[in-house]
Automatic annotation (TrEMBL):
Enzyme Commission code: 2.3.2.27
Protein name, as recorded: RING-type E3 ubiquitin transferase
Keywords from the named record: Transferase, Ubl conjugation pathway
Enzyme class of the recorded protein, top EC level: transferase
Keyword Transferase: yes
A GO molecular-function annotation: ubiquitin protein ligase activity
Length: 358
């Protein structure tokens, strides 16, 4: 056996001696400081440098962190009370220290072992255990070195989605936040999109807790940077849901951003007239005090009209009655001014018989 064979053996989840096969009654490794001192003296006499221990900011070695975290993971196969105690400690450790989050990711099969209690029984049976485990997943997802492995793990994303559908308010918020954090990695956007998360996220956006709704909107926005995910959201009816929420003054800036992301697709444009998009966006531009909100509205209108000039007549009627774009051209932020000017020019060219003034 070569070092660090024993640590590796235990990190694999083995609880027996590799030679005698006897069950180990105690599996936490304790550093032998006396032997280390003897080795240091021997090396010093012979002019040999002693390798430095890998240490975290608290002064503990990374190996010590891994061993302790691994001992907690082993409790995920123990009786329920031990699982709950270990889950709470894992949640605390991964929240408190970045080095613990990094060390956790170095343990073989760590994420599947962490979520084993939720995989083996009905997820809603023990809400306190579910809450601690999902919060731990959120903590771990903030470490960039963990994101890819978590996305590729067959357990993590399905259980996050299930926790969004069935959990305490705290669990729902944390599960949604974890999905958002994982979508910061491009490869995870495809994986999450294929897992039907879009259905769950849209339902949460429609009728969830206000804090969870915002996390859902941010997650949807990240997912919609991928073409396939845009199509998925359009096909399940995201546009009318989003527009209704905008009409109700809910998460207006976030949702207008998503609306702009979806507006260039032909399937989306076909739905816009059915959901009375143009009057809604003009009304927002007239009454909103936010420059970025007005900018998003005029950008959406510009995208839609560049794809389908039939909308220009509807814009002309609105503009003739209210001069909304003319006002925006005078008082809006720079990009909004340019798009308003471009739309007015397009209306004049397409419908010269209508008098559009600035």
């Amino acid at each position: 056996m070569r070092p660090p064979y024993i640590a590796y053996w235990l990190n694999q989840g083995n609880l027996t001696c590799p030679r005698s096969k006897e069950v180990l009654s105690y599996s936490t490794l304790t550093p032998n400081c006396l032997v280390r001192e003897l080795i240091s003296r021997w090396c010093g006499v012979r002019g040999i440098a002693v390798p430095e221990s890998r240490q975290n900011i608290s002064g503990k070695t990374i190996d010590e962190d891994i061993n302790y975290l691994n001992s907690l993971l082993r409790k995920m196969s123990s009786p329920l009370s031990d699982r709950k105690e270990a889950a709470k400690e894992l949640m605390r450790l991964t929240k408190a220290s970045p080095s613990n989050r990094t060390a956790f990711g170095q343990i073989p099969n760590a994420f599947s072992r962490l979520l084993r209690p939720l995989s083996e029984s009905k997820i809603e049976l023990h809400p306190d255990l579910q809450e601690d485990l999902i919060r731990t997943v959120l903590n771990l997802s903030t470490d960039d070195s963990n994101k890819a492995e978590m996305g590729e793990n067959p357990v993590v994303i399905p259980l996050l989605i299930e926790s969004v559908k069935c959990g305490t308010i705290e669990t729902i918020i944390n599960a949604t936040a974890a999905l958002y954090t994982l979508t910061q990695l491009d490869s995870n956007k495809l994986i999450i999109g294929k897992s039907r998360a879009h259905v769950t996220l849209l339902e949460l956006l429609r009728s969830g807790h206000p804090l969870a709704m915002r996390e859902a909107a941010l997650t949807i926005s990240n997912l919609c940077t991928v073409h396939e995910n845009k199509i998925r959201f359009i096909e399940i009816g995201a546009l009318p849901v989003i527009l209704q929420m905008i009409n109700d003054s809910m998460l207006v800036d976030e949702l207008l951003g998503i609306f702009a992301q979806l507006s260039a697709y032909s399937n989306a444009i076909e739905q816009f007239r059915e959901i009375y998009m143009v009057p809604c966006l003009f009304r927002i531009m007239r009454y909103s005090y936010s420059g970025s909100t007005k900018e998003n509205c005029v950008v959406i209108l510009f995208i839609v009209c560049s794809k389908n000039e039939a909308f220009l007549r509807e814009l002309c009627i609105e503009e003739t009655n209210n001069r909304t774009l003319a006002e925006l051209e005078d008082t809006g932020i720079e990009r909004a001014k340019r798009k308003a000017f471009d739309l007015i020019l397009a209306m004049r060219r397409a419908l010269p018989s209508l008098r559009i003034t600035t």
